[in-house]
Task: inverse folding
């Protein structure tokens, strides 16, 4: 079990002089936000990793269950910071870290980081490399959901 800390997101006005919103997001164990981007509609998208088996997920999420020692999270806050529009776990039975996220013009999320899950990280058919190659492997994943 890790220390209890939450990821947070804060939105400032364009001049950086007014705090428009600030919000925690996390469960009862440690949650760390490591990558952030803003989509075309002004929504905030964050990735990171969590030790929390109760990290908040949303209906329609890719995965609503905690999978291992550490899981990736991906979430989207609406442009006001007042609603969690999407949140999911991603991971295998060991440790996963989400470190970067971008959103394309179609609203798809691309997340990168690394995984220590040898046999059960969710790999898709036709992937460039479908085998685990060392203590930790880099991954890139695409969530095909309208995340703008």
Result:
């Amino acid at each position: 079990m890790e220390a209890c800390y939450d990821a947070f997101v804060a939105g400032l006005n364009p001049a950086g002089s007014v705090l428009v919103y600030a919000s925690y997001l996390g469960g009862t164990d440690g949650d760390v936000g490591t990558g952030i981007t803003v989509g075309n509609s002004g929504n905030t998208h964050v990735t990171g990793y969590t030790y929390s088996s109760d990290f908040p997920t949303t209906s329609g999420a890719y995965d609503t269950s905690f999978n291992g020692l550490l899981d990736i999270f991906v979430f989207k806050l609406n442009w006001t910071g007042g609603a969690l529009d999407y949140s999911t776990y991603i991971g295998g039975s060991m440790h996963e870290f989400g470190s970067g996220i971008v959103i394309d013009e179609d609203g798809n999320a691309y997340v990168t980081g690394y995984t220590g899950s040898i046999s059960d990280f969710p790999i898709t058919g036709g992937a460039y490399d479908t085998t685990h190659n060392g203590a930790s492997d880099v991954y890139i994943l695409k969530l095909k959901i309208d995340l703008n």
The two ends are 34 Å apart (CA to CA). The CA atoms of residues 48 and 98 lie 4 Å apart. The chain has a mean pLDDT of 90. The chain has one domain: 7-143.
